Amino acid sequence: MDINVRVAGEAGQGVLTTGNLLVGALAGLGLHVLSSQSYMSRIRGGLNWFDVRIADEELFSPRRTADLLVALTPPARDILAEDLTEGGMLLFDGAGGDGAVGIEFSRAAQEAAGSKLMANTVAAGAVFAVLGYDCGRLCGYLATQFKKKGDEVVAANVTCARRGAELAGTHAGRIPAPAPAAAPDYLCSGAEAIGLAAAAAGVKLVTAYPMTPSTPTFTYLAAVADRYGIVVEQAEDEIAAVNMICGAAYAGVPALAATSGGGFALMVEGLSLAGIMELPIVIVLGQRPGPATGLPTRTAQQDLKFALSAGHGEFVRAVFAPGTIQQCYELTRRALQTAHRFQTPVLILTDEFLQDLQKNVPPLDESPRPIDRHILEDPSPDYRRYEVTESGVSPRAIPGGEGFVICDSDVHNDCGNITEDLQTHLTQQDKRMRKLTGLTAEALPPQRYGPDDAGTLLLAWGSSYGPCREAVDALNAHGGSAAMLHFSQVWPINAAGARQLFGRPRRVISVEGNCTGQFASVLREAGLLEECELLPRYDGLPFTGEYIVSGVNG
Amino acid sequence: MDINVRVAGEAGQGVLTTGNLLVGALAGLGLHVLSSQSYMSRIRGGLNWFDVRIADEELFSPRRTADLLVALTPPARDILAEDLTEGGMLLFDGAGGDGAVGIEFSRAAQEAAGSKLMANTVAAGAVFAVLGYDCGRLCGYLATQFKKKGDEVVAANVTCARRGAELAGTHAGRIPAPAPAAAPDYLCSGAEAIGLAAAAAGVKLVTAYPMTPSTPTFTYLAAVADRYGIVVEQAEDEIAAVNMICGAAYAGVPALAATSGGGFALMVEGLSLAGIMELPIVIVLGQRPGPATGLPTRTAQQDLKFALSAGHGEFVRAVFAPGTIQQCYELTRRALQTAHRFQTPVLILTDEFLQDLQKNVPPLDESPRPIDRHILEDPSPDYRRYEVTESGVSPRAIPGGEGFVICDSDVHNDCGNITEDLQTHLTQQDKRMRKLTGLTAEALPPQRYGPDDAGTLLLAWGSSYGPCREAVDALNAHGGSAAMLHFSQVWPINAAGARQLFGRPRRVISVEGNCTGQFASVLREAGLLEECELLPRYDGLPFTGEYIVSGVNG
Amino acid sequence: MNIGKADTQPAWCPGCGNFAILKTLEEAVAEAGIDRRKLVLVSGIGQAAKLPHYTRANVFNGLHGRALPAATGIKLANHELTLVVTSGDGDMYGEGGNHFIHAVRRNIGVKAFVHNNQVYGLTKGQASPTSELGFVTKVQTHGVVSVPFNPLALAIVEDCCFVARSYTGDRDHLRRMMVAALAERGGFALLDILQPCVTFNKVNTFRWYKERARPIDDSHDPFDREKALRLALKWGDEIPVGILYRSRRPSFEANSPALAGKTLVAQLAGR
Amino acid sequence: MNIGKADTQPAWCPGCGNFAILKTLEEAVAEAGIDRRKLVLVSGIGQAAKLPHYTRANVFNGLHGRALPAATGIKLANHELTLVVTSGDGDMYGEGGNHFIHAVRRNIGVKAFVHNNQVYGLTKGQASPTSELGFVTKVQTHGVVSVPFNPLALAIVEDCCFVARSYTGDRDHLRRMMVAALAERGGFALLDILQPCVTFNKVNTFRWYKERARPIDDSHDPFDREKALRLALKWGDEIPVGILYRSRRPSFEANSPALAGKTLVAQLAGR
Ligand SMILES: Cc1ncc(C[n+]2csc(CCOP(=O)(O)OP(=O)(O)O)c2C)c(N)n1
Ligand SMILES: Cc1ncc(C[n+]2csc(CCOP(=O)(O)OP(=O)(O)O)c2C)c(N)n1
Ligand code: SF4
Ligand code: SF4
Ligand SMILES: [Mg+2]
Ligand SMILES: [Mg+2]
Q1: What confidence score (pLDDT) does residue D270 get?
Q2: What is the ipTM of this complex?
Q3: Nearest CB to C97: which of D102, D226, D232?
């Protein structure tokens, strides 16, 4: 069984704080939790919400509907009431009535702790009570959370939590909720998992120009910079950000830049630079709806084809698109490794949905485990940076030693010096392109989920893994026959691997967060697909299991 | 019959001047001429050459081999001698011998006119003599060319030309050459044809940040700016260049920016802006080999897929790729019209080869004939810039009148005001995407050349029109059965039109100036093609008829 | 008035300095007698950059950092329009820094009103190019170490036609500066407006600015470049506000032969 | 020495000022006692930007306009390297203008040697940001109307550690300036070098510079910002050459906690 708790109100009202408090405390109970967010591009006002889904088994996707809505403003109450499930409950910060249970969180906080700011703790207490969870566990969680801030703060929070539970106890009823179990209490968001993997893998320079939804990865890395020994620099623009990591990669340290579509557009020339210079750079591209500024705080999968063809001239790249928190971690590490093994730029496609998604997962490895940078130690004085090899990968030295390291954005010879000799150009261009063979050989095959003989095959890539997976389960639970083929590497495509897993479905449906079916056309180009149906979503909201099920059932 | 005259030497030695003089004078004889260039990215030194091909019938392509080589330096002589045809002649500015006829052009110029700078006129005189053309016609041409500079300059040039003819008359033999006929004497390069079409179509703001090979279009427009009333502004960078034309388009004037791959990479965010703001901008993208700085003065067709997917988010665009001088003119006009009819960005793909290609053609219309900007006159005070229509095209007003014109790079409502309402977002996104229907309906079909039942079909796009056409003729002349399908619009693809013209060839060969077969993969994605052979060239040099023939014959 | 406009309520935090700028801009436009039909407000992206949506005028709300080149293109297309750029410090001096340098050099007839809150507001509080040394944020965890950008000094060095500073703490002063900038016919006009961000900048508050703002003495000759530069370099306990510098040089439009007669757009319409 | 190097003959025009800069740089590097293995020459694209290929050192010849951020990344990765950027005026002040503003603010330990020929050489003679008013080219057919960019003044305003100007007409002076810049340990060092372009700049010739260059008086105190600015604003019949300005402030590297111990790259190697 699962329950979706939605906290909603204006920006700046503490929706995020309340949500995070709940997620943490509920995970602490050993429940499976999954949280997602919906917010507007403003600092105050508007209508934001935060969903915490809890269950006794692992969760993969958010839900459209809520079982318990905590509304901090009248619009939150009025607009979101229609998404309440039957038997659901609405707690409203104010007078009750009209189906809402009124609990004045802010006033209670003021009274109990002398500050309205703790309304969120009152709300959390109320939620615990409504769901029938032990308020003591919540208080314990608060104690660890606020320990650093001193006993007084802890005490005030505990008072507020108890007060919330009390108020709900008198006013509200109960909602049946899953029983506490033994899910891991290691909570992580997509944004953090990417940042953590980068830090642990030995990334030493991180640059960005702030842009939603990549900023949480950037700030996460800033927060852990001292611990891991990372320079985190906010560049003057995205062009500087990408050229800085090109410089750092040249000098031998793994480096990463984080951005979104508009910022990535500005990095495209630098991407091409990394292509010809054969620099191992990694760019995290957090997608949001475009074109241009679009919807800054919403989600989308619209930049796939752009990412695959971005940059003038021809060069090789790898593009990963994680679908889960664990994949965010693993594929970020793999992206860095791939970049260094093949000396070429690698992209990680994420999006607002996945960046903000939080879930409890088995603990991710936080210990520093630098990747192999494949660096040639002690190059001799006649070292040639672009020696022609069969694999296309040349031994890479870094500056500071006996052999000069010469890199050029112009066509160059094997030493790295500028040349206009056309035969040399061909030789070097062919050398670089040969890396595609190795990249393809190592490309991750898609992952199949669902019965082998499924009649309906959902094609998915990136962040829609979770929603598709829940849709497959739901379809099959209701007599359907569906499976999912999920690509977490979208370039190069492991065509052989994919072909094997296609099976013989009657229906093939590409589930994509864009309106033109970009991934389907990539597969068509790769010869893996002829026609297929498209199940698109491009209103800025993430896929959910229900959304896909109703799309499939049409 | 046709003859290829090649003038070769160092940069700064007058190769270009000599070449241009010859082209002009030979066209003046009523011969069919076609010139192309090969030069390095430096101002002095190196090895550059300039080819003038002349014939008694229309020419479409350069040739690899030369019948008459005028070498101004020893390397020019030594390196290019191997491309001389049998029976060809080599004139060398220095001592003869070893197969070369020595004529000291510079010394002769010094003696005849007191300045080495006129060596190029001496050389032109010599070429005229070797080809058996009347030196008087050359002198007449010089007289018109230098009229503005005064009688003295004319006289000096005439003396030099005669001296060159004289010297060749004594030293050199003759090369049989086509007889003067009645070809048009209107000479134009691809770069100029694009610029001219833009000026005549009423483009009022032209911006660029200098970048080979788009600069000749930019300087052409600067030269005619006063005549047509154009503001030509060199921007501080390409980002400024594209945003300036976005502003100008908003305010109601047709505007164009010219760049190459690296600069286009910087314009990509602006392209996306024009997509969501629905601004009619046109960008001329002059391709050269990449990645990054690559080979600045060479040619390539490597930026196709980049151009098709450039920009974050999803929006419609049209992409033209002219194949001839006339198409440069016509499609630039069409690009501007399309941009204005559909209020969306349009790209023109050209390349170094086409930009520098000169040919005599029937006179292009130089008179100002502004395109229809489809502007709503006198908008009322309740004007809405993004009114939802069936075609997706909203009536476009410009600022200054009663109705405010509101444009936003964020998602906006029909008035143009920023909104985060997701339903409005969907409505506007769908509205914009609907324009694709109209764009597709008007997309140019490819052009077929060659017999209907040809066994071999060459797929071509953009600048390879001429070389492919000559290859088709050559193949068919030698018992082959070949045709060409040339796409001068590469997006959207007129699939129905293309399918009709495909025929049932046994072999389909995509002739492309890149190493990955980009256009073939676009056609595959469009469902027009399964497998095909690839005949690539990516060494920086243009296709020639011979190159394609030998590629086909394999 | 456009329908739909009514929905467009400012998305700013209560107490934000942007409200004062908006209100004052309305007054200044009225006082300067500007025909709103000929007024175009151009902005990039940020909190400041949302302003155009909250007033009645033509609007070009373009890309982050790119307001100036867009405004340049509009001005060239129709130099009879009044171009006002309302942008943030990040927009204008960070992402847009190169355009700032060159728009001033070019002397294009655009008024740039920079809402300088010394922070990135919309993206939640990172340092901007004008943030103080030591300013701590979630990204600049050890405090800002880069010397703040000095837009006024740069503009003066580049012989900008009009260089002024004001702040939201004195709306009367702000209005007078705006009116003076709007009246400038020479070319580029820069008005840097110190604006409190109540949410993310706890250092440079309304009070902080108020305590430090010192109106420039009436005796100051704004055509004296050296003195103007000296004023521009002052920052700290005393922050000069007022017109620091003026210069008489022809605008880019006045220098463009193609714009000598009708506007470009009128040239086309005439045909 | 790398094989293939021998092929790499300078692709400059005979008489170009770049030859003098190359030769002087070789001397200065030797005189400053810099270990070439620890020397990285970074450039963008242009005639000037080809220089690194003609000397023995590590080379990062990146994108047009983007030498500074690349150099910044290299310096952060390994702050024991000496970073010299050799770039043109278009590269550094045109396409790269924003990076210039912010690299100086950041005070990253990079020496920027700008070959300022007041023109775009490689692309055949268009105006650059430092071209003189009235300079006629095939694009600026009526002459340049934008006020020339003043890199020295901007750097001084931003409290740059080392701001100097030299010219190719006095190689001894140039060498001394280079050596001084290379010796600077504080942070960013700017050396703007007036360089004749014999092919495309017929105004600012070798002689033109030679006649105008005036070594700065020994009595000048480079730590005096106002006086330095006054010198920076001088241009015309007299052009001051020498060290205009110096400032003592910690470099970006010195301010970065992660760089307090070993270099970043050494931190990895150590594991
Ligand atoms: C190319 C690009 N990069 C980054 C962003 C994200 N972004 C939006 S506003 C902003 C900064 C806002 O700061 P400022 O200009 O000072 O305006 P304020 O919000 O403080 O008024 C940033 C980084 C963007 N929209 N586009
Ligand atoms: C993004 C981009 N835009 C334009 C160019 C073309 N380009 C190469 S060098 C150059 C200007 C060179 O001028 P400068 O930097 O002053 O160097 P110089 O040749 O005068 O030494 C330009 C515009 C380019 N390579 N990349
Ligand atoms: S975040 Fe700051 S600048 Fe933005 S609206 Fe709020 S107070 Fe104003
Ligand atoms: S064009 Fe000018 S800068 Fe370039 S090499 Fe020649 S003289 Fe030097
Ligand atoms: Mg700000
Ligand atoms: Mg230059």
Answers
A1: 56
A2: 0.98
A3: D102
